[in-house]
From TrEMBL:
PANTHER family: 5-FORMYLTETRAHYDROFOLATE CYCLO-LIGASE, ATPASE INHIBITOR/5-FORMYLTETRAHYDROFOLATE CYCLO-LIGASE. It catalyses: (6S)-5-formyl-5,6,7,8-tetrahydrofolate + ATP = (6R)-5,10-methenyltetrahydrofolate + ADP + phosphate. Substrate binds at residue 60. It comes from the Bacteria. Its EC number is 6.3.3.2. This is 5-formyltetrahydrofolate cyclo-ligase. The keyword Magnesium applies. Keywords: ATP-binding, Ligase, Magnesium, Metal-binding, Nucleotide-binding. Coiled coil: none annotated. Pfam families: 5-FTHF_cyc-lig (PF01812).
Length: 191
């Protein structure tokens, strides 16, 4: 199998694993997950003002739960907005309580009228990650392009612990995350 076939097979397996985990998760444990930023993450975000979150789709880790904690830290929040179906997205300002619009692929986005933002840190969804902090996404390339465009932004994956796999096949353009936050731990890139 080539890397694209490996990625496709891993996506199918990772979706099933994540769905089964979330379905079996105690409701209280699910509600309590991802409400607070671990201290090391707060320290890493200290010099960064604009933080990109995402509105979760299906059983993705619930990134919007971090909003209040980030606002308490004085951060400006933004969410991705798909520009086209070719993998281009931008980030638009958002605050809790503001309405979201339906976007492609079941996403929810800020309105096009919301202010354009340039994030210092991008908290991204994923299907799988490995110990090298390589990230497997949905396959559209949206976050790959955003990571390349904002190459100095801190890249943070948000995931359920069961999403860690032995190896994520990586293409030359794939950029590793700087850290991954799960409901159980914080995994940082090795120095």
């Amino acid at each position: 199998m080539n890397d694209q076939q490996n990625k496709s097979a891993l996506r199918l397996s990772a979706r099933a694993t994540r769905a089964a985990f979330v379905e079996g998760l105690d409701q209280m444990a699910h509600r309590l997950a991802f409400h607070a930023l671990p201290s090391p993450v707060r320290a890493l975000l200290a010099g960064r003002q604009t933080i990109a979150l995402y509105a979760p789709v299906n059983d993705e880790a619930p990134a919007l739960r971090l909003a209040e904690s980030l606002i308490a830290e004085g951060k400006t929040l933004c969410l991705p907005r798909a520009v086209d179906r070719m993998g281009t997205m931008e980030f638009r300002a958002w605050s809790p309580g503001e309405p979201l619009e339906d976007g492609p692929f079941g996403t929810r986005n800020p309105s096009q009228e919301a202010s354009l933002c340039h994030p210092d840190a991008i908290i991204a969804p994923l299907l799988a990650f490995d110990a090298r902090l390589m990230r497997l996404g949905q396959g559209g390339g949206y976050y790959d392009r955003a990571f390349a465009r904002y190459e100095h932004a801190l890249r943070i994956g948000l995931a359920w612990s069961v999403q860690e796999v032995d190896t994520v096949p990586a293409d030359p353009w794939d950029m590793p995350l700087h850290l991954v936050i799960t409901e159980r731990s914080l995994i940082e890139a090795s120095a």
